[in-house]
Specification:
The chain is mostly helical. Helices cover about 65% and strands about 0% of the residues.
Length: about 120
């Protein structure tokens, strides 16, 4: 029998960047500990419905990034000036994307679980 690997679990490897924050005393890298949440997906079997939920969550996250990037660029250029606005705006939109993906996936999984309980 072929063992299926859930590749979403590999996002948890980004939590290792937090170790760099500890060794370099850069507290900004501690935010990567949030990726440890994705460890649970190593034990989830990636069936077709799970893949559809991941696709829906990724589409929502992509669109939220595209929509949030322009306002972040405008606000950051007013606050930080033109030189620092681009990296800060991209960082903020990346953060919004990760949160949107995670929250959307949690909501879709909760709906799936609720639907499975009604069967």
């Amino acid at each position: 029998m072929k063992c299926k690997i859930n590749y979403l679990g590999f996002l948890s490897l980004l939590a290792l960047i937090a170790i760099l924050g500890w060794t370099t005393e850069n507290t900004g890298l501690y935010g990567f500990l949030g990726f440890a949440y994705y460890l649970r997906y190593f034990w989830v079997i990636p069936d077709e419905f799970f893949q559809l939920n991941v696709q829906k969550a990724a589409t929502f996250a992509f669109m939220s990034e595209m929509i949030s990037l322009v306002p972040f660029m405008f606000v950051c250029s007013c606050i930080y000036g033109a030189t620092k606005a681009v990296p800060v705006a991209f960082g903020l939109s990346f953060t919004v994307t990760i949160f949107a993906f995670t929250i959307a996936l949690i909501v879709l999984e909760a709906k799936e679980r609720k639907g499975a309980e009604n069967d």
